[in-house]
Specification:
globular
Length: 267
């Protein structure tokens, strides 16, 4: 008997896009019998609903099976590769080069729950937990994420992320960031990573909130995270799991956008 669909389920079109990106079964042993579409549906249900793995509905595959694949794909880099493939397809469908030449950098402090793992206190945001440092292209699509303790200053966290991004994007030259990254980081970025870090400054004549050029793009990406309740706080023991959760959420968001894009010709 076919189950009733959940709002987070993959449509037929979305499944056809993601299906080729799923790693094949390991050679030897019994043939894979697990429905991989339902595994993805379970992972996306968990992300959108924010529930614990053990509280996944019983009409999905067993929670241990779903978590097994999530963890396996975290370890072998599948979530990052999916993110890269879908981002490339979306950029091409939008008439852009597959690789970006410019990006935007920012961080978001989030609370952690009472689990093991690194954490710290962000005195500026008054948040005890972790920081998500992200690098996005000019469409707001995720290039890279790094999660670390919230007590690490933005400039130091940016160094960790930019060092990781060095050499990963062949066309990337320019990175925009807000005033929190000004100072020695600009010179360090040029000398150590060969990127130009340009600080987007506020207009001193405007009081209160103002939309800053380029900066709004990364803020919108953080707002997209809000669609996924699992990302409302950091529930994970390992920061690598936190990063995988973010990549998986972006995969879900991008495959939905790609499936309805009029210019999409398929992967």
């Amino acid at each position: 008997m076919e189950r009733k669909p959940y709002p987070s389920d993959l449509s037929d079109a979305e499944w056809q896009i993601l299906k080729p990106l799923i790693p094949p079964a390991k050679p030897g042993g019994r043939p894979r019998s697990t429905d991989m579409r339902e595994v993805l549906n379970g992972i996306f249900y968990e992300l959108r609903s924010g529930c614990a793995w053990r509280m996944l509905p019983h009409d999905l595959p067993p929670c241990k099976t779903i978590y097994h694949y999530f963890r396996q794909w975290k370890g072998d880099g599948t979530w990052e590769r999916m993110n890269q493939e879908l981002r490339t397809e979306l950029r091409r469908a939008d008439g852009r080069e597959s690789e970006p030449s410019a990006a935007i950098l920012d961080s978001q402090s989030v609370k952690t729950v009472d689990v093991k793992g690194i954490r710290g206190y962000d005195a500026g945001k008054k948040v005890k937990g972790r920081k998500r440092h992200i690098l996005v292209d000019t469409m707001g699509l995720l290039l890279m994420v790094l999660v670390h303790a919230a007590n690490i200053q933005d400039r130091d966290g940016a160094k960790l992320l930019l060092s990781k991004a060095k050499g990963c994007f062949s066309r990337l030259r320019l990175i925009w960031a807000d005033g929190g990254y000004k100072g020695k980081l600009v010179k360090w970025t040029r000398n150590s990573c060969s990127f130009v870090l340009e600080i987007v400054k506020r207009d001193k004549g405007v009081k209160g909130f103002q939309v800053l050029p380029r900066r709004w793009v990364v803020e919108r990406t953080f707002a997209w995270f809000g669609f996924y309740r699992r990302l409302s706080k950091d529930y994970e023991v390992l920061t690598e799991t936190s990063e995988a959760m973010i990549y998986a959420a972006m995969v879900h968001l991008m495959v939905r956008r790609l499936a309805i894009h009029p210019q999409h010709a398929g992967p």
